[in-house]
Amino acid sequence: MSSHADVERRLGELLRTHEEQVISRWTQSADAPRDELTELYRAILRAIEEGGRDLADLRGLLAELSRSRARAGYSPAETSKAVFGLKGALYEIVVAHADDEVLRGFIRFARLIDDLGLFTFEAYAEAREKIIMDQAEQLLELSTPVVKLWEGIVAVPLIGTLDSARTQVVMEKLLETLVETGAEHAVIDITGVPAVDTQVAQHLLKTVFAARLMGAECVISGIRPQIAHTIVTLGIEFGDIVTKSSLADALAHAFRRSGVQVSGGPATRVTVRAEQA
Amino acid sequence: MNAEREAAIASSADVVAVRRLVRSAAIEVGLSLIDQTKIITAASELARNALVYAGRGEVRVHVVENGSRRGLKLVVSDEGPGISDVERALTDGWTTGTGLGLGLGGSRRLVDEFDLLSEPGKGTSVTVTKWAR
């Protein structure tokens, strides 16, 4: 009966002698760059020669491979198949040199590759999750700009679904901008919000009241007919909050309130003058 | 046509998914823009109720026909604590949660048919229908 060490030594030898051949086969089946696989191959070889105890280097390499493939848009199956491909590549060599030790070695090797394949899959999933989370965060940032419409008038054009997380971001950004710019008028435009249910309405109301506490007057604009219908039927009351159907109306309202007058027709120059307070 | 679609509700992202599902079905049935928005909003309220009060639930979307009229029927069900006083739950402004207390009563007004079945300790099932005009 040969010991584990003998089996590993024999397997290591086999992998070392036939390195070129195995890597060539592997490259064919795995659809991956040869130098990447060579690096991986050497790391696996080292791990086997060291008795398969220290897999940290190997895992690092695999995690890197998984990450780059997740970013490049490979499927998880394709990614782990690249690792599993090594079994097939080695199989031919094993068949040609089949003896007791080699076969036992191959079984241990196959188990190692299975573990590594699963690890690759996990690393891939993690990398993908991270990408999705990054994108969600970016989206959250992107989708809530606070824009300055005029001196003292800011607007938040809301697009998409308002959930608690987004409302929080919107509210914080709006209040921060109110402080930074000293604006006294804010317009929340919901043209891009597909449906206003009681939760969205509640979020909007809270934002308006918070802005009021900071001394700013909020107008909600972009209330389309179907939204108005729904709000009335639901029985939501906006109380004394000013609402307008379009952003233009809201801007005109804010102009009136802040004493800005707009004069001139479409063909003439538009002149604006702020009344002295 | 008796297409039926299902969606599970387990997170607030699922509530958004329910809205999308109902929107596509409502367009298919030929509801007007206003009626689409109403049934979507009702679905959103009921799905969120299931999520908030029962932790999870499910929505089944049926396309129904009555003579020449087509409509959309939604069944939102959960296995939560149930509603002990249905009349009160349907009263505007009444809530045991932190919302506005308009969701359930408002949903009833948003749709053409509203049927609420609740058994304390067993769960709640709300069936609503909106007919195309």
UniProtKB/TrEMBL annotation, chain B:
Residues 34-133 form the Histidine kinase/HSP90-like ATPase domain. It comes from the Bacteria. It holds the Pfam family HATPase_c. InterPro entries: HATPase_C_sf, HATPase_dom. This is Anti-sigma regulatory factor.
